[in-house]
Amino acid sequence: MCKFTSLMISLCISATILLASGEPKLTPEQQEVINAHNTLRDTARRRDFAAWSPHVADDCIFSTDDGEITTKAKVIDHMRNMPLAYDHSENQRDFTVRVGLRIPTSSPEMRETETFIRRGGSWLLVARQWGALPVNFRVPVAADPLSYGDYAGQYEWRPGGPVDDVSVKDGKLLTRLNEESEDHEYLPLGSGTFFIKDDLGTVTFVRNAQGRVRGYTYHRVDGQEVHVKKIK
Q1: pTM of the predicted model, to two decimals?
Q2: CATH second-level architecture of 4-132?
Q3: Does the domain at residues 145-230 carry the CATH identifier 2.40.128.50?
Q4: DSSP 53
Q5: What are the beta bridge partners of residue 79?
Q6: What is d(CA 51, CA 174) in angstroms, rounded to the nearest whole number?
Q7: What is the pLDDT along the chain (232 residues), one digit of tens a residue?
Q8: Phi, psi of 104 (to 5 degrees)
Q9: Structural domain boundaries in the chain
């Protein structure tokens, strides 16, 4: 049976490769996987695909977090035409290597997971999954805090489901879902629409014919909507 080793890579703005303090040193096998990854990175950045290709299985599975699957040949074509300015591979940090399993990791910007198999005495890439992690670049607009009182109350996502407790404190509109230990601020986007800094979705409060807030619509980043009812 082949032994699988997975390499989890977090990419962020630091240009230094770091290992978390206090973690045990890499085993020789783990270091081999890191070296294999570095070879792939360096040859790709040189656009030397003759040197890159032998380290990648012909049937290697490349996939994104939205489920798109592509081939080795298409990845080569994509990288060949991609300016180096758009290549974030020089900003890698926080390597985590595990033998026998794949564990997702996260960072402020990008997550990449590679799976290698030892074949013919060297490590061969057989799968790579990557995707952007949630980073919210929205900027709040000016709003009148006196209007926030209209939104205060409790909102039920579904019968017996999560309840969002919306309150106003020190001129801020705050939300706390169920048993969360702290409040999060609803930041204004205008026209009764708000967002939370660590969430890519938005909330738009909805009023009835009399002008009273009767709930809100949570707009997911993928376009789906969740209609939430005000219960108190």
Answers
A1: 0.54
A2: Roll (3.10)
A3: yes
A4: G
A5: none
A6: 54
A7: 333 333 333 322 222 233 344 455 778 888 888 888 889 989 998 899 999 999 999 999 999 877 789 999 999 988 888 777 666 555 555 556 655 444 334 444 667 888 899 888 889 999 988 877 667 889 999 999 999 999 999 999 988 888 999 999 999 999 998 878 889 999 999 989 999 988 889 999 999 999 999 999 999 988 899 999 999 9
A8: -65, 150
A9: 4-132, 145-230
